[in-house]
Amino acid sequence: MDWSPRMLIGATDAARYLGLKSEDAAKRQLAKLRVPVVNLGRGRGLGLRWRIQDIDEAMEILRQTPGEPQKPARKKKQHVQDIFDLPVREQARRFTDLTDTRRTQ
User: Fold this and answer.
1) Other beta carbons within 10 Å of 39
2) CA 44 from centroid of its chain's CA atoms
């Protein structure tokens, strides 16, 4: 079959184009990729269609060069020490240090 970029294809052809086994798998994958769908209505041979160009664009976004990480590394959150995480004596010492510095100013 000649796959022209502007051609609209159904779920069966989309599954064949993507190399998937079933129409349902193709529908799920295309929905996951957020490929725009054209709804031609109900009836003989009508229904959901996808433009090959849109499928190719969605697949191009997924394509990555070798050695490139699949997901960006998450930044580790720095633990901000809360005063209530400290022992009671340390809390009292820091509190009195704060009040003493305010009195001297």
Assistant:
1) 9
2) 36
Tell me what pLDDT residue 84 has: 76
Burial of 52 (0-12, 13-18, 19+ CB in 10 A): middle
Strand segments, DSSP code E, in 18-92 are 37-39, 48-51
Chain CA centroid to CA 95, Å:
45
Query: In this predicted model, what pLDDT tens digit does every residue of 59-68 receive, in sequence order?
Result: 887 776 566 6
Farthest-apart Cα atoms in the chain, separation? 88
- For residue 99, pLDDT beyond 80: no
Burial class (CB in 10 A: 0-12, 13-18, 19+), 26: buried
Is the four-CA dihedral 64, 6, 44, 48 of positive or negative sign? Answer: positive
Question: pTM for this structure?
Answer: 0.55
The radius of gyration of the chain from alpha carbons, rounded to an integer in Å, stands at: 29
